[in-house]
Design brief:
Largest sheet: 4 strands, mixed
CATH superfamily of the largest domain: Ribosomal protein S3, C-terminal domain
Number of strands: 8
Order of helices and strands: HEHEEHHEHHHHEEEE
Strand order of the largest sheet: 1-2-3-4
Shape: globular
CATH class of the largest domain: Alpha Beta
Structural class: alpha/beta
Number of domains: 2
Strand content: 25-35%
Amino acid sequence: MGQKSNLLTLKKVNKNLNLVSYETKTFLYSLQYLKYFETLLAKKNIWLISKTLVLSSSSVFLALDVFYKSVKTTFYKKKGLSTVKKPLLFSSNQSLIRLFQKNFPLNKINAVTCTINNLNRHLNSTLLSFLYNRTKKFSTNIFVRRFNLYIDFLKLTALLIQNKLSSKNYIHLLSQVFKSLSKRVHTRFLFFLKAIFKLIIEISLPSAINTIKGFKFVINGKLQGKTRASFSCIQEGSVPTQSISKNIDFAKSHVYTLYGVFGMRMWIYRKD
């Protein structure tokens, strides 16, 4: 077992359980409900970043971190990039109780406690304007006819800088950007990532907001439509992958495109 695999297996990280239950049937019903609830929010252009569901004998605790996707992009084209406040998902707990009773026929639920954290309210408008002014030249070649995805990319990048987003969610965003690109734009995409990573590290913000000190991104696959698979590595800043005690956030993902399957891996180093 190599040193990099030792880092992933031996590093002691306290994992947060997002589904807590002691009964098998309750666990299966809870898992089915979370999948259904995530699909329901996706139809409303709401991305469920993280979810926590805890069930007891007669009560339910549900905590959600949601992100509202940009739909009407004409507002941003006319008035510039800014934070828009979104309404809450539910007006009362009665709708949640009816939804739980529909998906949990074996449980008698008397109380439902739901906490919704809207990540759009945590966005820094100054940081968003800075990212928009420095990266708007890429909106014409990387995000062709996908200006709403470009706006969402800037918002989620700002949340990553503010330590409100994990690498798992961010690499999922990068896979959505890369998924519909043609083979002629693969090199341009890598140049775009290198510029974004360099911009995030060099950004002048207080240490309490920006704690990112390094990025490492590796992509494997048939880049540029070649017959043989190859890999490309991008690294900006310092990423001490050989140390166990450092705060390194690792994530990986697979992207299914017309040119084959691409594998993505990313390391984000944050100072303690």
